[in-house]
């Protein structure tokens, strides 16, 4: 675990450098802060920044798109949780890659789901034109950003503040235009549907950038922008002032320390992901030591359901136990969802919904039980009930994948497709349909069985295919691959789990609407 965390931290540090020292120096020469410097100045001193999507696309474009050119995450501004989207102009002048859209949409979804303000720090040259086919069209193309802008402004009433701190060109100009408040920075901001060159070619007008779409023009002539700042620092101070006008946040509860220190988390997960471990030993190093009560501990014990507190917040925990478990009805395989365990979880989730208790899922699931006996017991109907109660619940849902997240079990344990508020994972997470060995049997099993029946060796070509299948699955199941595709919001150092999940929970509870987002946006 320590080696995996160190490797992850090295990769993250490299990505946080963006376009590198020379690009950072150019940003400073232009009189501008970098995206990360702006965020640091905007957030409350000493408060954490929970970055979302840092690893997205890190393994694409020959490494030329660190962070997909945008920094997204959450922090506190004047004591209030907020989502922040900041274009990184050190990466191809802040141009939009296809994955830039993915990150911005996820940031907006977090703001909508949790009803917390969102701040856009705009400094972008616009669409990365050679890749426009993955950016411009489609249901989840760039237009979706403006759709979310409109929903937040007109229906959900989520505060949106936009600060144009560099170029903001073409369709991208609608992002601030659809926000509640627009700030611009004198002499460094530009906002327009077309730049000087495009205007020259389209309508034959010769005009400089400042006259066409500068901060002074938009705050004195067009009225599009609302405030003009002297420089970046002044702009960020004005944003903080706007936050002071918002309702004061609710006071966070006081909790107690965990029963055992977090350092033990490094030693709990086995080196072989197939071996058992104690999920209770994980939980007791994360939640408060008091007020822990397991629900139906002797019934369907492969699923742990418990009420607890996390930093004082009441929470409902759902976790997979691993290993072989003895029950009245016989031995159970941990990590598998049986008919009884699906019904148990469904009932537990219903109670959490009634009591407005947030759900925290510790995922280490291999899937639902299969076989003639399971089918006769109605595993499909029980699994559907487990999925349905989770999908329709309105309480916050936070996911932590510690090991496996496989098959339909991943879905039933509040997989990403069910819009959980936050999805986190440890570097040990393995998210996929099945493991490599199972995939080999599914894909090549009939051929292997026939060869065995005929007492013939495995041909070299088939062996190569088998090895490729295993290698592909190992790559797809790697936690960094999942993070690179946006399947989790962030990979966590286990030692940071309590701190990060507590902050995520605070964000969830800041303006807990108790309304299902689908009912308001679809």
Structure overview:
This protein is of the alpha/beta class. Helix content is 40%, strand content 20%. Strands 1, 2, 3, 4, 5, 6, 7 and 8 form an eight-stranded mixed sheet that branches. Strands 9, 10, 11, 15, 17, 18, 19 and 20 form an eight-stranded mixed sheet that branches. Strands 12-13 form a two-stranded antiparallel ribbon. Strand 9 and strand 10 form a beta hairpin. Helix 4 (98-114) packs parallel to helix 5 (143-156) and helix 17 packs antiparallel against helix 18 (460-477). It is globular, with a radius of gyration of 25 Å. The chain starts with a helix and ends with a helix. The mean pLDDT is 94.
Intertermini distance: 42 Å
Helix/strand-derived class? alpha/beta
**Percent helix among the residues?**
40-55%
- What is the number of E strands? 20
Total helices: the number is 21
- Can you tell me the residue ranges where pLDDT is under 50 for at least 5 consecutive residues? none
What summary fits the major beta sheet? 8 strands, mixed
On the 0 to 100 scale, the average pLDDT is 94
Shape: globular
How are the secondary structure elements laid out?
Layout: H1 2-16, H2 21-29, H3 35-42, E1 50-51, E2 70-77, E3 80-87, H4 98-114, E4 118-124, H5 143-156, E5 160-169, H6 174-177, E6 181-185, E7 190-192, H7 196-203, H8 209-213, H9 215-220, E8 227-229, H10 232-244, H11 265-268, H12 279-283, E9 293-295, E10 303-310, E11 313-320, E12 324-327, E13 330-333, E14 336-337, H13 339-354, E15 359-365, E16 367-368, H14 372-376, H15 379-392, E17 397-406, H16 407-412, E18 422-425, E19 430-432, H17 436-453, H18 460-477, H19 479-484, E20 490-491, H20 497-510, H21 517-521
